[in-house]
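[Help] Beginner question about ligand-bound structures

Sorry if this is basic. My supervisor gave me a protein sequence and a SMILES string for flavin mononucleotide and asked me to "get the holo structure". I don't really know what that means in practice or what format the answer should be in. Inputs are pasted below exactly as I got them.
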Amino acid sequence: MMKRLVLKDLTIEKPLFLAPMAGISDKPFRQICKSFGAGVVYTEFVSADGIVRENDRTFHYMRFDECERPIGVQIFGHDPETLARSARYVEEQLQPDIIDLNFGCPVPKVVKCGAGSAILKELPRLEAIARSVRAVVTLPLTAKIRAGWDKGHIVAREAAKCLEQAGIELLTLHPRTSKQQYSGEADWSLIREVKAGIRIPLIGNGDIKSPGDARKMLEETGCDGIMIGRGAIGKPWLFRDILHYLQEGELPLPPERADIAETFFRHLELQEVHYPLMYAGNLFKTHASAYVRGMDGAAHLRYEMNRAKDLDRIRELAKTFF
Ligand SMILES: Cc1cc2nc3c(=O)[nH]c(=O)nc-3n(C[C@H](O)[C@H](O)[C@H](O)COP(=O)(O)O)c2cc1C
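Answer (accepted):
No worries, everyone starts somewhere. Holo just means with the ligand present. The predicted complex, written as structure tokens, is below.
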């Protein structure tokens, strides 16, 4: 149902993508998702301005380990020249497998600078950015878009064509408008329409929370692969379950409490390895709460974890809980 994709020298065996998610898709989470079968992962988005200024924090977000390949670094910005310089820098310094352009972020801080989804209001700029980056990088170049700025301006079809003409190798569509942010439902029919108008592979994204959703999106839209974001938070085994369901046609059993505990502690250990102790605990809290969602006693654990000062305390609380 999902065929392998070839982008230049890169072969993607399983077009099952972990979505870029700021504050979520960091190294530990990417590695956990990879261990469950995610075929491609992306970094959290990074600012092109930050890259050219060689900002330390920006570099922290872009670092990855070899075991995460194939991995894409996602960049955002407004100025074609700056995006091109930053992409070239990423290619030379980090050698990821993919460079991805963000044309979907709805966060006010980003759109106020004319970046992210604001570029969907300016298709000539969108095309200029893609062309200027394409001209200077040799790695596969991908882009991620939303449906449009608001419901009166659904431009995904035109944007997809511009990006294809500019030399993008693969496109991901999250079919909500920027104004919608994450409310309402993703309009999967738009994925089908965009797919019909382009020849490059299209990855469908939005509201996949179960193996059944994954199959439905593939069948209903004809997309070439799928990308999963929120559905994998606290449930990274979703990638394994989707692959199993698509291959075997049957739903896997839900994980036992002991399986959830194993993943929880494995993630916690990675957190400890990758972050200085003083940040590791706070950065893990969103994931930790998501792992126990719906379980007996989860509300109390979440309350206690939120007050925890460090990762050791979270470990102690979780040991008692599990
Ligand atoms: C906390 C959070 C952070 C996100 N950060 C990014 C980002 O940095 N770059 C991006 O392209 N999309 C970002 N997104 C959007 C997701 O990649 C994805 O398109 C969206 O969540 C819809 O997919 P889902 O329904 O599977 O979550 C973010 C989403 C969330 C929830």
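A couple of things worth pointing out: Residues 19-24, 44-45, 74, 102, 104-105, 144, 174, 205-208, 228-231 surround flavin mononucleotide (CB under 6 Å). The domain at 5-248 is CATH 3.20.20.70 (TIM Barrel). Feel free to follow up in the thread.
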